[in-house]
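User: Please run a holo structure prediction.
Assistant: Happy to. Please share the sequence and the ligand.
User: Here you go; the ligand is S-adenosyl-L-homocysteine.
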Amino acid sequence: MNQAKKLYLETFGCQMNVSDSEKIVTLMKGMGYQQTQDPVDADLVLLNTCSIRATAEQRVYGHLGKFKSIKKTKPGLIIGVGGCVAQQEGEKLLKKAPFVNLVFGTHNLHLLQGMVAAAEEGKRSSQTDFLDDEKRFDLFPHSEAEGGGTRFVTVMQGCDNFCAYCIVPHVRGREISRSAAKVVEEVRALADSGVTEVTLLGQNVNSYCSKQPGEPDFPDLLRLVAQVDGIERIRFTTSHPKDMSPRLIECFADLSKLAPHIHLPAQSGSDRVLQKMNRGYTAQQYLAKVAALKEACPGIQFTGDMIVGFPGEDEAAFQDTMALMEQVQYADLFSFIYSARPGTKAAEYADDATRAEKQGRLERLQAAQKQTTLARNRSLEGTVQKVLVEGLSSTGDSLFGRTGGNRGTVMAGDPSLAGRVLDVRIVEGLQTLLKGEIVHD
Ligand code: SAH
Ligand code: SF4
Ligand code: F3S
């Protein structure tokens, strides 16, 4: 009997890459590769990479070193690099890393099978051309729905915003939306297989179809998806504050399936910095949208992203960021030290704060957020939340799920409850999660 070939796949970066990796697994299965968790066992190693910050990119090169040593003892090992670093580096990566067999960009998944087949014949290749066409969505199979729980559904890809610091538009290309009919068809198929929650995915979902006037826009799409029977909860990510329209805010009031949570990255609370970042809103405009969302959906939970140490950020500008956080009261916040990325506008700006100053700001910001997160988690004690059970917790001795507000919750219960949305009373709000008990009526 032929032993199955083994694929070791490692994924870095955002949900876009996670979603692409699911497709990669399906494509490689089609070529007879079964996934393994042990790289030493693998015939094919694929890295799906991220280049959002210099540290993310360096991590990829660190990992490649590890596979280079494995290849020394196993010369037939095929090593491929995909995703955003691959897109950025292209052919250069083949030169820098002679042990790499193939490099595939963010628009080239449909070529992957051919490239792996060529590598099996000893040929090295790199494919990083952009394919700015909606057809791209149809070029590879849907990832397999395994039933139950929660799934991501891509609604758009790419980004046209060109925030001054960001590499995404350079490595993911221009924004393209998938037709509403296709999105609804995929959601319906997932619901039929037992999926109860979908997260509509894109770099900037709320500008969905903005380049196709006459087509359903994002609020229309949400209303269509909400009509699919079997889907109990809808989420979406990521949103750009400038595109958070009154019609989209209304959806939070009207659609009971829409989860009371929004990831709405502000990036800074200083108008001067926001303008230099090319974000297209002021702190006041951002806060007005937050207030409108809180009014439309009482109890809504906010999460966001914040950058410290952007060129030109002084202590006063940093204090504006802290003041904005105080007003919003984020349930959770992802915060980063600015990292200059090749080819972006901000890479040309003088980077004036010292490393120590930036580190100090990050620490102060994170300490303040930690307090807010704990206070918000504690404020949920005694309330009953709708929790979608995802499965066993990481420790394996209880169930893990998420509230509508997207707070991770652990509770005792039978694993067969995975995929169900249950009433859970919160008994304790901790720093990183909630503890609850299932309400039995
Ligand atoms: N499309 C999403 C997410 C983009 S990347 C959005 O627009 O919100 C995720 C986060 O990484 C960004 O929100 C930003 O806070 C951070 N980020 C992006 N580029 C960065 C850079 N050059 N340095 C530091 N953080 C960065
Ligand atoms: Fe990057 Fe801005 Fe686009 Fe988000 S909206 S992906 S931060 S350019
Ligand atoms: Fe990283 Fe690419 Fe996502 S740069 S954050 S994996 S779009």
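The CA atoms of residues 26 and 144 lie 7 Å apart.
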